[in-house]
Amino acid sequence: MVQGLNYDFDGMFPMEPDFYQDEEMCLKDYEYLKKLYPKEVRLISTVLEERLDRWEYEGSPMYAQYPDAVTIYRMAKEIFDQFAFECDQKEKARIKDMIQVMVCQEIYVRRRRHDKFCRKFK
Length: 122
What we know:
The chain is mostly helical. It is built from five helices and no strands. The protein has helices at 9-12, 19-35, 39-54, 69-80, 89-120. Helix 3 (39-54) packs across helix 4 (69-80) and helix 3 crosses helix 5. The relative contact order is 0.11.
C-alpha cells in the first residue's frame, strides 16, 4: 500500500493580500484624522468636500493624468470665496495656500478611490 504525498498548498500559494480591506482601513484612518482638524479647518474641509463632490464626474479635470495647476488654484479660490475672512492680506494668502493644499490632498484621495473602483470593473 502506497501512501499519498501530503502537500502544503497554503505554503505553496500564500493568500493574496486583501487590498480592499487595506484601502478601507486607510480611508477610516484618513476620516479620523480629519476629525482632529481645528474647528475652522473642519468647516473649510466640509465646504471643500461638498464642492469637490460636484466636480467628481467622469472626464472631470481632477481625473486628468496631470491636473492643471490653474484648475487647482481656481478650485481653491472658489472655496476661499465662500468665506468672509476678517484678517490682513498676508493671513488671507496663508489661508488660500492651506485650502489649495487641502484641495490637492482631497483630489489625491478621490483619484486613488476612483482608480481602485475603475480597475475592479475593467
